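Q: Could you fold this chain for me?
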Amino acid sequence: MDALASEPTYVDHLAAVFNALPPEVRGKFLTSDERTTNRAKVLGYETARPNGGREPVLVASYGDLGRARGMGRRKIAIMEHGAGQSYGGRPSSARHGSYAGGQGRGAASLFLHPGEHPAARDKAAYPKARVEVVGAPFLDNLPAKEGKPGRVVAFSFHFNAPIAPEARTAYPWIFPAIAALRGKYKLLGHAHPRMWDAAKPRYEKLGIEPVRDFMDVCRRADLYICDNSSTLFAFAATGRPVVVVNPPWYDRRVDHGLRFWEASEVGVNCNDPAELARCIRTALADAPEQQAKREAALDLVYAFRSGAGARAAAALLDWA
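A: Sure. Below is the predicted structure, expressed as structure tokens.
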């Protein structure tokens, strides 16, 4: 069985499943991207250029689903590479193929999901396909905090996705308030891969340490601040607090599910940049009631929080 990945972040998600497959079943990571190739090799996997072989192939994105289909692969599985967020609260955004339940995903005959929300959307849209709820294999590999608890605050931003207002970045709204915290906390600046090249020089200009790899964020940070990303839930799943920022263009009247809005209390919600410092103090205190809210939100997102790699591998073997 091969895996197809066009970006390094997809390798990290797919590798958690490949690690659980029997060695004799593992194929190669197919990619034509240099950084993705290097990431796969660092993790110990053979790589090859995308090709039209007959082996089953696993992908972790809508774009790679299309690439696998274009290569002539007949047996394709797609694994959700995030928390399963979709934008079904509006008819226009509900149809986008990048998200569960969207159009153009019919080339996949197996869908692997972290929880019931995205699984239900793909089941409804593709009733002939096999849909399995396995948890998020990525969680199996997330590192714990290294060193003693401290005052290391990481933050991240989504990119400006045109699909919905809730997918737009909160950067211009909240970043000045974050930058004002320099000297009070050790700040680590992260960003969605599609936002990174724009964000990194801005962080450096202000003396904020840029950290590209989310694994490094998990190793170092005591708290994570973010607008809209599966990393909010992934970081919270390590048992540490998060701050959820809500710029005014996030519409409280729309119900997309998960981040918008049933699982939004995974962390302390910040609805005003002037309140950010207070939200950080509250989050770092991590009172029992906030821990309970975090756990309830995570239960909505992840059906399982461990063993997902093995569960996904078992489903793949049976399907293949």
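A (continued): Residues 143-301 form a domain with the Rossmann fold fold (CATH 3.40.50.12580).
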